[in-house]
Amino acid sequence: MSGGDIQRGATNAQAVEALTRGELVILPTETVYGLAADASNAQAVAAIFEAKGRPRFNPLIAHVADAAQAEAVAVFDSRARALAEAFWPGPLTIVAPVRDRAAVCDLARAGLDSVAVRVPGHARARAVIAAFGKPVVAPSANRSGRPSPTTFDDAVEETGHAAADAVDGGPCAVGVESTVVSVLDGRISLLRPGSVTREEIEAAVGPLDQGGEGSDEAHRSPGRLALHYAPDAPVRINAGAAREGEILLGFGPGVGDPRWSLSPTGDLREAAANLFRRLREADRESPAGIAVSPIPAHGLGEAINDRLKRAAGFVG
Fold first, then answer.
1. What gap in Å lies between CA 182 and CA 93, rounded to an integer?
2. CB proximity list for 279: less than 8 A, separation 6 or greater
3. Is pLDDT of 224 > 90?
4. Mean pLDDT confidence for 69-84
5. Which of 156, 209, 239, 293 could share a disulfide with 251, CB 3.0–4.6 Å?
6. Helices (H) and strands (E) in the chain, counts
């Protein structure tokens, strides 16, 4: 069952049955909604790439029920374990050498000798994965390059045509994709910023390697395309005011229309939770353009600015 026959509001058991049949399932996480499939089933994984129009060189994250399941598919050293202990369940992905290539198929890993794994913080996601008993890949449930869906309805609108079941987990609490950290060859690098901040990671495991996005490891992380997370309308960032026809997504007290503000109080966590939803709403209402107020670059602001730069096509 797929396409127009999607089972909205599916139970956990129905989701597990669909995954077992090799079908796709819209699954909530605390970051964004994912389009999930059995990570070991190359045909099911290929269906995700087709549904999203996603480039096959872009690896997927294997979502697992707990740290033990993570270490069954990835080789963790002491620092990877320290990260898992500090931030799991939660919005942190660890890239480590692959241990079990069959559990997360070659296509899901984009042919790499590493694998990206995380334990999601959303209770229903973990329950489905635990009942399924195997890793599940679950990239954001949107067409490739579009803003990630953080509500059930947006996820179904984007990729519901390709899914058999859709699990409604409510609005996503975090609102931006997970932080991605590689732990390879004795080095720790931040490959994608997220709600687990650079400062929090360094407090747990010490200084990060300075290579990061521009390093040899950047290709091991999803979400690194120069134009990504983008609505149809053009996006202009660090804007002081809206131009004619634009909607301004403000940040902070007294900036723009409160209805469109990412956070009227200047709270970065609120801004992250609202980011993709506001981009989608503004895109529907103002195809002429979207302007976004300056966002501080510290803490979670690093992730918000990363997504906005890619939405505007300013990263390359």
1. 8
2. 147, 229, 231, 235, 249, 290, 311
3. no
4. 98
5. 293
6. 9, 13
> Peptide bond preceding 234: is omega within 30 degrees of 0, i.e. cis?
no
Kind and range of the H or E element at 236? strand 235-236
- CB count within 10 Å of CB 110 equals 17
Residue ranges in 98-253 assigned as alpha helix (H): 123-132, 152-159, 198-205
Per residue in 230-263, pLDDT tens? 899 999 999 999 999 999 999 999 999 999 999 9
Q: What are phi and psi of 291, to 5 degrees?
A: -105, 145
Span 271-276, average pLDDT: 98
Tokens standing for residue 274 = 């609202």
Tokens of 46: 């290929």
Residues 57-64, mean pLDDT to the nearest whole number: 95
Distance CA 175, CA 275 (A): 7
Query: 31 with 151: CB under 8 angstroms?
Result: no
